[in-house]
Amino acid sequence: MDLSLVLALVAVALSVLFLLVTRARKPWQRGKLPPGSLGLPVIGQSLGLLRAMRANTAERWIQDRVDRYGPVSKLSLFGIPTVLLTGPAANKFVFFSTALASQQPRSMQRILGERNILELMGADHKRVRGALLEFLKPDMLRLYVGKIEGEVRRHLDENWAGRRTVTVLPLMKRLTFDIISLLLFGLERGAVRDTLFREFVDVMEGTWAVPLNLPFTAFSRSLKASARIHRVFTGIARETQAKLERGEASRSSDLIACLLSLTDDSGAPLLSEEEIVDNAMVSLIAGHDTSSILLTFLIRQLADDPDTLAAMVHEHDEIAKSKGDGEALTWEDLAKMKLTWRAAQEMLRMVPPVFGNFRRATKDIEFDGYVIPKGWQVFWTAAATHMDGSIYPEPDKFNPSRFETQSASVAPPCSFVAFGAGPRICVGMEFARIETLVALHYLLRRFRWKLCCKENTFVRDPAPSPLHGLPIELAEHKAASP
């Protein structure tokens, strides 16, 4: 870890230390604290966790703590006293407790905006979540399959066809960005979308950066790019409002149009302009990362898994045979892609796009006989259950059959948390499923590939990224005739 990062962590932690010290009661006044250590003042265990994530040993780092202290332990992360909770019961507690509020890194808060759904609680959270779900309910999603298909086919024609090698991760990131730009903001292909993508790259680099707003930092670049994107979204929202008033757009046109169309019982707008813009930013980031990472790691897996590849190809060939030549995919076709989605779920189990996240205790609460003091963080990780051999036998083995209906019922509740759970479960889960299934349908029927790198590894920084972005040798495949 270089000195600049250490100094940055110290600066961030000092900004919250005084508040924590002055507001906190003494631990022995609260009850029995979990075992463990808060580590060095201010730094705590932050550097150890960051090193482990970048070395792809974070699961081992978590398990070492569990082996030493048990499923509940205290530590200090990013300058804040923290309780690590692991296991299905702990996941259920984290996702369903009303005494735990969402706790995003300060860098994320400032980039996304104050009125984004990740920061809201109570009635505000319920109102904004309900508005987003209006756009993502099944009868609306049915309308988007054709648009997603169009973006996928154009992307493959322009970026894959005729190429001997491609690098998968950046291409998947651009594909999912283009899909989201069209469906969420109504942005067709062109200069505005291309400019927005460049700004988005800068935003993503700073979302988990140390929040030092200095000219040379990733966080500073991210803040400036975020401000520019917010201005673009504000302009889109105002233009869309005018189109709605002229009858040139409808609720189903895109996310912005849907949110602008919603009203409360008195007929007033359900969401403010700030809420629409901030949650458009959340939707862009959340929808982009999950699907692009999932598709990339599925491509990596299928390169060396001929049995799964053959079974998935057969599934998609059968769907194609049931349709006329050139006929578009439908919602009903997606329902037939059962094996493909089981494979996607298994990949999400093994390589969840989000390693873990934080909650904040809004009052003193108790779990498993230990007190979590008000103001402390709670840290949960997906890997603690996803890679638990007592829940998923041979957890390092890729086995999509785990997610067959009968097999999935064996796992305890809250064992699979790739999309979270409870009131804050990812609202875009079904949208991500559609993106993944449509993209795989055309990838599997048009191409075959081999990995270029013998070393098949990845790192987390903080999202998983395969070595060199996953370069592959590509060959076009003559699909079975429909």
Automatic annotation (TrEMBL):
Keyword Mitochondrion: no
GO molecular function: heme binding; iron ion binding; monooxygenase activity; oxidoreductase activity, acting on paired donors, with incorporation or reduction of molecular oxygen
Signal peptide feature range: none
Gene Ontology terms: biological process: sterol metabolic process
Cofactor(s) it depends on: heme
Keywords: Heme, Iron, Metal-binding, Monooxygenase, Oxidoreductase
Family: Belongs to the cytochrome P450 family.
Protein name from the UniProt record: Cytochrome P450
Lineage of the species this protein comes from: Eukaryota, Viridiplantae, Streptophyta, Embryophyta, Tracheophyta
